From TrEMBL, chain A:
PANTHER family reported for this sequence: PADR-FAMILY TRANSCRIPTIONAL REGULATOR, TRANSCRIPTIONAL REGULATOR, PADR FAMILY
Pfam families, A to Z: PadR (PF03551)
Residue ranges occupied by any Transcription regulator PadR N-terminal domain in the UniProt entry: 14-83
Name the UniProt record assigns to this protein: Transcriptional regulator, PadR family
Organism (species): Hespellia stercorisuis DSM 15480
Superkingdom of origin organism: Bacteria
Matching SUPFAM superfamilies: Winged helix' DNA-binding domain
From TrEMBL, chain B:
Organism: Hespellia stercorisuis DSM 15480
Superkingdom, natural source: Bacteria
Keyword Membrane in record: yes
Pfam families in the record: HAAS
Key words, A-Z: Membrane, Transmembrane, Transmembrane helix
Transmembrane intervals: 107-128, 134-164
Protein name as it appears in the record: Uncharacterized membrane protein
Length: 107, 229
């Protein structure tokens, strides 16, 4: 991708991906989902998930799957609030940029 | 490199972080491999690049969290320096740290300069006071020497004058002796007077010269200081 994905945007994307699953989702799947939108390396997301977990935006729980343990990530209330903030910020930001790119023809 | 080698190497590279963080990271990547399945193992190892890179990313994330107040939500960097795939992991981590540490660096530099200045001053101070003491001592010695010369000359003049008086008092008792004493007195008086005038004149030459010498030195120091600054 030509544009850099900053820390805040990466946080927002991860929160959005995790929040789509009501029961929570796991590391490998989060990576696959995020990679459908942006090109990140496999190692990019662990620090992001860990940080969001420490900031109480994500909570983790372990569940048995296929005879082994699997760690699930779920968005907390604080995470939802943070995601909503990101959503509105992104909306105004992307609108302004689009407006500039498309030559100011919007109303 | 297979999965087991990768995980062993990663764990050894994470020895310098807390046990909790190491376990978290190891759990994450163990599950990651499990969820990807054995058929994707090679692809994932290739995409993770190297255990060194993964370890560097984990550590960078930890450091980032420590000063999240000023770094986390900024528009710049984050993905750029740490996830660029060209440089060695060590170099990459350093790049990531540089931006946020610039201010700290300049503060550290100022503190270092002050410390060095204090260290130099503590060594230079005794030397400087020693040199200053010597200069002041020599100056007063020279001043004293010339005052001494003037005093000596004045004393000779006075001695001559006293001899004249003594000669005059003896003039009625022993005329030749009195004349001789008076003559010697006059001679010594004149020599003393000449010496006094000479030494006083010498003082008028030497003291201003000394004064100019010190003014020049002082001026040089000040100008040098200005040039350095």
């Amino acid at each position: 991708m030509v544009f850099n994905t900053g820390a805040a945007l990466l946080d927002a994307i991860v929160l959005a991906v995790v929040s789509r699953e009501k029961e929570g989702t796991y590391g490998y799947r989060i990576t696959q989902d995020v990679r459908m939108a942006i090109d990140v390396s496999e190692s990019t997301l662990y620090p992001v998930l860990r940080r969001l977990q420490k900031d109480d935006c994500l909570e983790v729980y372990d569940m048995q799957f296929d005879g082994r343990n699997r760690r699930y990530y779920k968005v907390t209330d604080r995470g939802v609030a943070q995601l909503n903030l990101y959503r509105s910020e992104w909306k105004s930001y992307s609108e302004k940029i689009s407006q500039l790119f498309e030559g100011g023809t919007t109303s | 490199m297979n999965r087991t080698d990768f995980m062993i190497k990663l764990e050894s590279l994470l020895q310098d972080i807390s046990t909790e963080e190491r376990n978290e990271a190891m759990t994450y990547y163990r599950e990651y491999f499990n969820d990807a399945g054995p058929e994707n193992e090679d692809t994932i190892i290739k995409e993770l690049v190297s255990p060194e890179k993964v370890a560097a990313t984990i550590k960078a994330g930890l450091r980032d969290h420590d000063n999240s107040e000023d770094g986390e939500f900024s528009e710049t960097g984050y993905t750029d320096p740490r996830f660029a795939e060209k440089e060695a992991p060590a170099a990459r981590t350093q790049d990531g740290a540089q931006g946020s540490n610039t201010q700290t660096n300049s503060i550290i530099k100022i503190i270092l300069i002050i410390l060095i200045a204090l260290a130099v001053a503590s060594v230079a101070w005794p030397v400087l006071t020693g040199v200053a003491g010597a200069v002041i001592g020599i100056t007063f010695a020279i001043i004293g020497l010339f005052i001494g010369l003037v005093c000596g000359a004045a004393a000779i003049t006075l001695a001559g004058f006293i001899l004249i008086i003594m000669g005059l008092t003896k003039i009625a008792v022993a005329f030749p002796t009195a004349i001789f004493t008076c003559g010697t007195g006059i001679l010594i008086f004149v020599i003393g007077l000449i010496a006094t005038v000479g030494t006083v004149k010498l003082c008028f030459i030497v003291y201003p010269a000394m004064f100019r010498f010190f003014v020049n030195i002082f001026r040089k120091i000040v100008h040098k200081g200005k040039a350095v600054l």
